[in-house]
Task: structure prediction
Amino acid sequence: DTEVTQTPKHLVMGMTNKKSLKCEQHMGHRAMYWYKQKAKKPPELMFVYSYEKLSINESVPSRFSPECPNSSLLNLHLHALQPEDSALYLCASSQDLAGGYQETQYFGPGTRLLVL
Amino acid sequence: GNSVTQMEGPVTLSEEAFLTINCTYTATGYPSLFWYVQYPGEGLQLLLKATKADDKGSNKGFEATYRKETTSFHLEKGSVQVSDSAVYFCALPGSGNTPLVFGKGTRLSVIA
Result:
């Protein structure tokens, strides 16, 4: 089973709202990722977690706050977003980072976010 | 650092036509190479991968061969179907802190 699940599938929020995106995998992977994808572009890395610790933060604004409560779950907390943050948010996981980034990343279906 | 150049589309083909999407890379060492596919309204799915030179990845009728001499990993399919309409991304591990470097993506439309 190579499934990564994400909820919700769609999310509409106002600029003053607080919401969270959730990601889950049961493949025993110890590396998890958040990406942001704008229309007609490849995904852009936001965060990487390795063994539940934040490994990479690609200078993402503080209105995005990641959390990894355990090895299977990854959350992305959203607060005071801007309309330009509207995008598809993808979660991914891989075995671990021990061998660098040679391991295959498995992606979830994404959450399509619209900020009004 | 590692980089990938991918043929940009859109590519429009008739059903049963032959498909080639070109991908060339620049990398230190011999990284794994990947093709991901993104169907309309969905996330990315791993289509195939190759982990060393001369390896051929294959899946769903698609193939790509890891060519060290030409630093290429071209995606091919002998007979495309309407259901293959999607965006295809070539990717490889980045250098430094970059997990994956993606090509810009190639949009394929197959018409009946």
